[in-house]
Amino acid sequence: MTALVAFADLDDTLFQTLRKLPGRDPADLSPATVDTRGEPHSYCAPAQTALLELLRLGAVTVIPVTGRDPAAMNRVTLPFRSWRVLDHGLTVLNPAGEPDAEWAARVTAHLTPLQDALREHTDDLRPHADALGGRLKVHKAHGVPFMAVLKHPDANAQALAELQTRWEAAVEGNAHLHVIANANNVSLLPRALGKAQAVRWLRDRHFPHATLTLGLGDSVSDLPFMRECDFALTPAHGQLLRAVAGLHLPQR
Ligand SMILES: [Mg+2]
C-alpha cells in the first residue's frame, strides 16, 4: 500500500503551453504533451521538472486530476503509472488504464436526472455563442453528456467574459449545475460531482492508509479537491493565488 499520494491537476500546474512561458529559453523546457499531430505542445519549466523529480525520489504516487478527456490524456507524454482522474473527475482510470466500473456506475446514475437542465442551458447559450464567434461543445463521459464547454477560436477574452456572465446568470440558482471558467474556456458542469468527489472516493477506496496526501492545482475550481488532501500546493502565479491575493478580507 502506498503511503504518500499526490493528486495533481495537469495543465498550468505541472506544465503549460509556450504562450504562458514568455521569455523562457526553449532549451530549459521539457516537453510534456503533444498536439493532435504529435508535435510538442506543452512544456515543464525547470521548477516543474524538479517538483516531479522530487515526488518520484520520495516514492510519491502521482495521480493526475484533470479536465482532459481520455484522448487528450493520451497526448500527455509524462509517465503516470497509477490511477488517473479525467473528465473533471467523471472518469477514473485504474492503473491498467481502464475506466473504473464502480465509479462509472455512480457517475451515470448521478448524470441521468441532470440531462434536461444540461441540454436546456446549453441550447439557450448557443445563439449568443454563435453571434460572438464562440464554439460550444457537449462532452460525454461513459457515453452520457456531462459538460458543455465554450471556447473562442481566437481566445477573445471579451467575448468569453460576456458569454460567461450571461451563462452564470442563467444557471444561477440551479442546484445541480454550475459554470466554471479557466483561461481559455468556460464550462457548464455538475455541481456535486467532480474532481473533489473523485479524489475523495479514490483516497477512501484505494489509498485508505495514505499517511500524506498532497493536492496540486492552479485554478479556483481545483480548490475543492485540494481541500480533500492534507496539504495543498499551488503555483505562485496561478489563478488560485491571484484570486486569493485580490481578496480584501476585513481586518480583525
Ligand atoms: Mg489547471
Automatic annotation (TrEMBL):
InterPro entries assigned: HAD-like_sf (IPR036412), HAD_sf (IPR023214), TPP-like (IPR024197)
SUPFAM superfamilies: HAD-like
Gene3D superfamilies on file: 3.90.1070.10, HAD superfamily/HAD-like
Organism domain of life: Bacteria
Name the record gives this protein: Sucrose phosphatase-like domain-containing protein
